[in-house]
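Hey Z.,

So I finally got round to the cytidine-5'-monophosphate thing we talked about over coffee. Here's the setup:
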Amino acid sequence: MGVVIAIDGPAAAGKGTLSRQIAETYGFHHLDTGLTYRATAKALLDAGLPLDDETVAEKMAREVELAGLDRDTLSAHAIGEAASKIAVMPKVRRALVEAQKAFSTRAPGTVLDGRDIGTVVCPDAPVKLYVTASADVRARRRYDEIIAKGGEAEYDDIFADVTKRDERDMGRADSPLKPAQDAHLLDTSKMSIEAAFQAAKSLIDEAL
Ligand code: C5P
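And the result:
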């Protein structure tokens, strides 16, 4: 059983970039658990299946292959929205959490990022980070990212999306987004990517 680094936080907080950097630095496997919800949602959308049938969604969740997950093919806004809708379903969560827990045992260690890693998936992880930033900063970062890739976006729409998704993720009954009691809070609102990484690295080095 390897070491687990659990990273949680709201949409667009910079968890992904941070998790990848940490995994690379420590030579650990990385799983972006948001992609497991997104892949389930995409499979339902592609098959023209409803997003409100828990049994059908659970079946799709059980077919998700962790090895094939790729953010580029799952980044569409509609997929993120659909993912957060099916993420409220306990049977979908149970199926995906099972696969995530299995992943977390890989040696020499793993970094898992999501919404419920420190609270539900890996409650015994020796290092838990809760990465956040103000809704305005997160919306601004997502906006800049889209524009940098040559896309089009309205800042106000993105801000509305980010806050709506926060509400859904924090308000659901099963595994709501919240910091684990023993998580270290990392507010990156005023930090560069490098500063956030250095802060995370110090916390990890202290704990391992
Ligand atoms: O992180 P990302 O935005 O890709 O996640 C998409 C959606 O999947 C989130 O809004 C959330 O509803 C859900 N999710 C979750 N638990 C996780 C990871 C993601 O409920 N561990």
